[in-house]
Design brief:
Number of domains: 1
Distance between the termini: 45 Å
Number of helices: 7
CATH topology: Rossmann fold
Order of helices and strands: HHHHEHEHEEHEEE
Shape: globular
Structural class: alpha/beta
Helix content: 25-40%
CATH class: Alpha Beta
Radius of gyration: 16 Å
Amino acid sequence: MDVQKKFHTASIVSHYFPKLAPNQIALFNRLRDIYDHWNRKINLISRKDIVHLYLHHVLHGLAIAKVITFRAHTKILDFGTGGGFPGIPLAIMFPEVNFHLVDATAKKIKAVQAIATTLGLKNISVDWARGEDLKSTYDFVIGRGVAHLALFYHWVKDKIAKENKNSLYNGILYLKGPSSDHLPISMDVYPVQRFFIEPFFREKYLAHVYTT
């Protein structure tokens, strides 16, 4: 397949995750048509960027799956999910993990709920809510481009459960740019281009913020 064409199809996901089950591949393949449909109704993704759905949004979110394989029944909060990223791709990747997708924009949450329902993803719950309204705790809080990491940490630090059950300490897994971050707790930072070689990922990083 032509390299440029691969960027625009689910084959780029299969390339980096060759052990996907057939039903997972089928779900990833369906994302393009579903997001095209919803993007005509509401601006979930920049209309200029929808052609890059798999490279810029799906694969980017799946960088988290390169640093951790979540155990079954892990609880994850996708805080400020926007159009469902990174939560929806990760829910396809980890069907036995529970994802709670939350955003303060009602029309986006309505679309995300419809997308999850269309895909038949039983491991996703969706809420229109502000962070301070959430009472549950989670093993991990994930996010991408919601705010500066220090502010994101301030918003979600009390949402993280204390008991660890995964290979990484409970905490925040946040997709971010190259800016420096000074936080009062431990943080590991992974260059996303360590996992995906495409030039788009040169200035992309995954931060794991945690307490021990």
